[in-house]
Design a protein that fits this description.
By secondary structure, the chain is of the alpha/beta class. The protein has 13 helices and 15 strands. The chain has one domain: 3-Layer(aba) Sandwich (Rossmann fold), CATH 3.40.50. It has a 7-stranded parallel β-sheet with strand order 3-2-1-4-5-7-12, with helices on both faces. Strands 6-15 form a two-stranded parallel ribbon. The radius of gyration is 19 Å and the shape is globular. Bound molecules: NADP nicotinamide-adenine-dinucleotide phosphate. NADP nicotinamide-adenine-dinucleotide phosphate binds next to strand 2 and strand 8.
Length: 311
């Protein structure tokens, strides 16, 4: 098949491109920079230099390649300030609204069959009821004020893709990515923070996280190109776990000191309501649907094995 990957130079795209090429697909991948275009070509794909927020250029680029499948992997996630979360995510939120709309329009105009978009599972989940959610469970109805716009952008991506006329819309809600090139990878921001003992267990550390190794996320995306009914899929490992379990384990795995424990009230001035909620009330996610319908399973079924590779 002919596959157009928007955001080919990002953390998922870098693993996804060679995996798609290896599976026998003809791939085009976008970046804004000519230096990264060379990386795209080295992965065996055609490089397309385009700004995803330039509507006409996007429509033109997709129609020129005539893909069967379009994949949206556009994010611009830098350092995250939990107190100003929406501001930290402002460009990502544009890529998840305008960026999605332009790409969906381009795909429809080019007669594309299937459209796959990156979403996220974890903090968007409702913070009530069971601690592990599936795709039918509602998203947070009462988001902390700092995260309202980011949640709206996620809702926009998901409804625009699954509701698009004449397209098989697939949304992949990746869990927290770890592994090479991610914030939870060697040299990554989170690993450095844990190494410096600057990430404490907040309150009871009861927030439940679902992780996925970046290579497993890429493999799930290849599976979603080739099979699976349209709809939303959680792409996470088999073992959702509370902060109080995974954070000390991660510290030990990378040879760092055991994280401190701090009461929520003490760090709230620094982390804000959303930061504290992330560490205490976040819900994890089930991968049962992805396993069943995409015939995919993570090679790292638990972060316990995966974190051992991060030292
Ligand atoms: N589920 C998760 O946990 C999750 C998901 C995604 C990212 N992250 C984290 O976020 C951090 C950054 O990740 P990343 O590498 O994906 O982000 P990134 O470097 O910001 O890039 C993602 C992709 O989006 C493209 N892009 C961004 N803005 C664009 C625009 N206006 N027009 C066209 N393309 C645009 C980039 O292309 P260019 O080559 O043009 O820059 C790149 O291909 C990492 O720490 C990663 O772990 C986590």
């Amino acid at each position: 098949m002919r596959i157009f990957v928007a955001g080919a130079s990002g953390v998922i795209g870098r693993g996804l491109l060679p995996a798609l090429v290896k599976a026998g697909h003809d791939v085009a991948g976008t970046t804004r920079s000519s230096a990264k275009a060379e990386q795209v070509r080295l992965a065996g794909a055609e490089a397309v230099v385009v700004d995803a927020l330039d509507r006409e250029a996007v429509v033109e680029a997709v129609s020129r390649f005539r893909p069967d499948v379009v994949i949206h992997q556009l994010t611009a996630i830098g350092a995250t300030d939990f107190k100003k979360f929406d501001e930290s995510y402002a460009t990502t939120n544009r890529l998840r609204t305008e960026g999605v709309d332009y790409l969906v329009e381009a795909a429809q105009a080019a007669g594309v069959r299937r459209f796959i978009a990156q979403s996220f599972t974890g903090w968007p989940n409702a913070r009530t009821g069971g601690w592990v959610k599936d795709e039918d469970d509602p998203l947070d109805q009462h988001p902390a004020p700092a995260s309202v716009k980011s949640l709206e952008a996620i809702r926009h991506t998901e409804s625009a893709v699954t509701g698009a006329a004449d397209l098989e819309g697939v949304v992949l809600r990746y869990g927290v990515l770890y592994g090479p090139g991610t914030a939870f990878g060697p040299g990554g921001e989170m690993i450095e923070t844990v190494a410096k003992r600057k990430m404490p267990v907040v309150g009871g550390g009861t927030g439940v996280f679902s992780f996925v190794h970046v290579a497993d996320a890429a493999a799930a995306t290849v599976a979603a190109v080739e099979r699976g009914r349209p709809g939303i899929y959680n792409i996470v490992d088999d073992e959702p776990a509370p902060v109080t379990e995974w954070l000390p384990y991660l510290a030990e795995a990378i040879g760092a000191k055991r994280p401190a424990r701090v009461p929520a009230w003490l760090v709230k001035p620094m982390l804000g309501e959303f930061g504290v909620a992330t560490m205490t009330t976040t819900r994890g996610s089930s991968n049962a649907k992805a396993k069943r319908e995409l015939d995919w399973a993570p090679t790292y079924p638990s972060w316990k094995q995966g974190f051992r590779t991060l030292a």
